[in-house]
Design brief:
With 251 residues, this protein is mainly alpha-helical. It contains twelve helices and no strands.
Length: 251
């Protein structure tokens, strides 16, 4: 009986002497084991499996949300520009959506829609509407009346004046709204992980749960910041390319 117990517990004793994570020391540097401020070795090893997929999904989440939000906001702004009564109810609804805390909205959508990309995008789109609607409408209304009169005097229809005069002159205000919207959505996308396991919020949340693990936290958070700065910079370049007359006026 004692011999049987000895042979049974023998493998358990041997297993207990082995490391909990096999080959952990060979896979991780001293920097990672001691959780130093930033370990480039971890970033290099985890760029492909962790950081790049999260960054790619984050970009996709933001682009889809801003794209859909822009289409909806543009339609509503054009309607409000044509029919003034549309502005007030649109402003009220979009303001209510904008003031709902993001985590609360994500969780509210989870029940009827589910824990998926649709609930994530619905929430993100709702946060773009107020910003984009106000900026597009403000840009359209800022077009001088004499310019519109000149367009009418040249024989332009209302639609032609909108496409050739009003929208081009409203571009600075429209792009300003897009800049605010894209930076806002890139930031909000970091909390999408609560209902949809995608985006840079996933490695940020993982890092916070690991002590926190400083390298993963800094790398994922830094990528979110760089993404916002890059998107903002690209929109500035787009605005300058589409409105050359604004540069001529300031030179």
């Amino acid at each position: 009986m004692a011999l049987a117990a000895l042979t049974t517990t023998g493998p358990l004793i041997a297993a207990a002497t082995e490391p909990v994570i096999p080959n952990y020391a060979s896979q991780s540097s001293s920097c990672e084991i001691h959780n130093h401020l930033f370990c480039t070795s971890w970033v290099t090893r985890n760029w492909g499996p962790v950081l790049w997929p999260a960054l790619r999904d984050h970009i996709l989440l933001a682009l889809v949300a801003v794209g859909i939000g822009f289409a909806i906001a543009m339609t509503l702004a054009l309607a409000a520009h044509r029919y003034g009564w549309v502005e007030r109810p649109t402003t009220v609804v979009t303001t209510i959506l904008y003031t709902i805390p993001s985590l609360a909205l994500f969780e509210l959508l989870a029940a009827p829609v589910g824990l998926n990309v649709f609930s994530a995008e619905i929430a993100l789109v709702s946060y773009t509407l107020l910003i984009l609607f106000r900026n597009i409408l403000a840009g359209l209304r800022a077009v001088p009346t004499e310019v519109l009169d000149a367009a009418e005097g040249m024989g332009m229809s209302r639609g032609q004046a909108l496409l050739r005069v009003e929208l081009p002159l409203a571009l600075p205000s429209i792009v300003a709204g897009l800049r605010i919207a894209i930076v806002t959505i890139i930031a909000l996308s970091t909390v999408v992980y609560v209902i949809y396991n995608r985006g840079l919020g996933v490695p940020i949340h993982t890092a916070l749960g690991e002590g926190p693990f400083k390298t993963e936290l800094i790398a994922a958070g830094g990528l979110a910041i760089l993404l916002a700065l890059l998107a903002d910079g690209l929109l500035v370049l787009v605005q300058r390319a589409l409105t050359p007359w604004s540069r001529a006026g300031t030179s």
